[in-house]
Amino acid sequence: MRLINCPVCQRKVDIALINKHLDTCTEQPESVPPPAAPAPATETAPELTSQPAKSVSSLLTGTKSTKKSSYKYENSQKRTLSDSQSLSSDHEGNTSIEIVEPEPKVRKTDPADELRLLKAQAKLPLAERLRPSSLEDYIGQEHLVGEGGILRGFIQNDRVPSLILWGYPGTGKTTLARLISHATKSRFIELSATSNGISDCKRVFEEARNEYKLTKRHTIVFIDEIHRFNKAQQDIFLPHVEKGTITLVGATTENPSFQLNSALLSRCRVFVLNRLTSDELHKIVSKALLVINKTRKLVHNVPILRFNKEAIGYICNIADGDSRSALNLLELADSHFMTNYSLEPGKHVIEVNAEQLREVLKRTHMVYDRVGDAHYDTISAFHKSIRGSNADAAMYYLGRMLKGGENPLYIARRMIRIASEDVGVLDDSCLPFAIATYQAVQFVGLPEADLALVHCAVKLARAPKSVEIYRGWNELNAKLDSEPEFASASIPLHLRNAPTKLMKEVGYSKGYKYNPDYKDGRVKQEYFPEQIGEMQFLTGQHLGLTPDPDL
Fold first, then answer.
1. The CATH number of the domain where 395 resides is what?
2. Fewer C-beta neighbours within 10 Å, C or N terminus of the chain?
């Protein structure tokens, strides 16, 4: 049984019976004896007014209280009243204290100040204006910062370890690092490998050491584009991360396995940020449109924009998981429709569809849809230019893809395929050359790896062409798919492996002629299954024989 003091008679009452007891106290005040030890006058008023909007009964039952509530005391009791209380007497001479709920204070925003702030923010890039300030506003990367996400737990508990954020551009690496700065009690320093050098890092390390000695306050150092530091420069972080002088948070778009020092990488956790989904980009674009329209209406005094579903989908498709790219495209459209629009009389909204956006972005932006038609059309034109030995056309399409933001590793992978499919056995050096190009892109990255891609494309275009293995392989696969007996024919016993005595006794490997034991390695021996007999897929013919009538 849990006892509490009744606020009227000061008796101790079981909490389960407090509601019934309060009804009795307030209905029959004359029967309530005075408290054994009345509290001083200065202490009673605060006790009664600490929660003016709710009675004790409402607190226990969860019901809403009325605006006014009255507690009655005998005349002998004296109380000091606050400004929110007033005295009144009934016909029986009992004094009633009436507690009036104060009006809630509403913070009024000065429209002039709000407009001034909006004008100042209008000069910032849209991506910066929309950067979230809390995890609740962060969109994407649910596997890391969603409910139960491991990184969310680190941030909320202020126990962030040294880590590397690896992901494509526009996936939220920098934003996530800045959210850590908002949530942590540690000192947070942001540097960029593109603008800060090793001397800046050394100064930060010294400040971090002194800060901890004086205040026991830890320091988190965020390095954006950390892969821009070469591996020798990255060594400077090792002792400070290992000793705990700093917590390192790095952001990179390149594979940490190739771009970061292995010793440093072993001391940091790597978190992979995925490309944003179409739904996540849709949320970001819709949120950005609200900001854009507020600015258009209040700052620029121009009609607002209304994008239909297809228009938003078009922007999300071009952005291909890159939120910054999506917002940049939206800003281009916003700038275009500042002056280039026509409205019907009485309308104040500019309706925007996908076709209008396509025309706008063709004039103001190099459109290369990395997941749509442009992606497949351009790589197809690139491949066919190499096949046709036109090195200049191959360079042209390569340039379009790189300028449009195509993944260079995707292009390098395609050239590895071309080396076998179109050049084949006539120039065996092309395949290792294409593989070396892929590795060069991995090790160096853009923009430095662009010439490696050009070098490989030109070599492949100028190499002699052979489709012998390509055609032979396709013919073989067609038979395997269409003729079940061809795919399941029994392998000859003399070609089978015989690792055990039992297999040898059964006849496995019996009669096999080991070619190196014979002159020139030539022997008479069957290699195909008996059921299908000898077949020939490689004819020795590298190209076709049909002349082009247009030549």
1. 1.20.272.10
2. C
Token pair 């854009």 is at which residue?
A: 292
- pLDDT tens-digit series, residues 29-64: 444 444 444 444 444 433 333 344 444 344 334 444
Give CA–CA dist 422/463, Å, rounded. 9
Distances 294 to 65, 258, 288, 291, 442 between C-alpha atoms, Å: 40, 45, 10, 5, 44
Instruction: Tell me the C-alpha distance between 201 and 223, whole Å.
Output: 9
- Residue identified by tokens 């000192």 is 187
Q: pLDDT per residue over 202-247, tens digit each?
A: 999 999 999 999 999 999 999 999 999 998 899 999 999 999 999 9
| Cα 420 from Cα 469, distance rounded (Å) | 8
Region 275-292: mean pLDDT is 93
Measured from the Cβ of residue 398, the count of other Cβ atoms closer than 10 Å reads 25
Write the pLDDT tens digit of every residue in 429-439: 999 999 999 99
Both 441 and 342 in one domain: the answer is no
Report helix angle 430-444 to 450-462, nearest 10. Answer: 170
Domain that holds residue 20: 3-72
Who has greater pLDDT, 366 or 416?
416
Q: Is 442 exposed, middle or buried (0-12, 13-18, 19+ CB in 10 A)?
A: middle
194, amino acid identity:
T
